[in-house]
User: What shape does this take?
Amino acid sequence: MSNITEEYVEEYIRELLPDHQGQLKVIEESALENQVPIVHKEVAALLKVITKASSSKKILEVGTAVGYSSILLCQAAGDGAKVTTIERNEKRAEEARINIETLQLSNSIQVIEGDAQEVLNFLEGTYDLIFLDGAKGHYKEMLEQCTNLLKIGGILVSDNILFKGMVANDDLVVRRKRTIVNRMREYLQYICNHPQLDTSIIPIGDGVAISYKRLEE
Assistant: This one.
């Protein structure tokens, strides 16, 4: 139970959605078995719909893990997709490269190993879609960099923004997670009132924020 929505609703949605097949299913099962965090099934479906609906081709991801969502985004974008993904953990970055190579997507997905806050400073151009799924306590610090890298009319998707329900309910907060919870609350307040972003909060998975970049008023 994620504490984001009722368990029966969560289970019903996940049962409705078709399972992934082939190598992507293998990656998914391996990640779950080894307790590697990947996007929830319903969030994966949302990412695919957003990518297709926005006709996104140039995509940036912060937080690669084993490459699961990078592959999802790339496949959803289709022909001409270019995904850049950042991972600070050397072992995870290597696993991601292997998974990406297995699916013959190495020409479409670039894995950059390093600290996202540093890497973001050196990226050039703008992106159609940015998926923020890195260190939860540093979302706000990365927001300005991400906003600058996002094209006008582009979409920023921030994952895990309700953090097991703790962000919305003090009674759920684990003491050692208090700092992350407070920082995420600041982040949500900021993006919901940002002069260049129209934001919607969706209570699925571990909480998702979808932000649209418009011209600053």
Notes: The chain has a mean pLDDT of 94. The first strand starts at residue 58 and ends at 62.
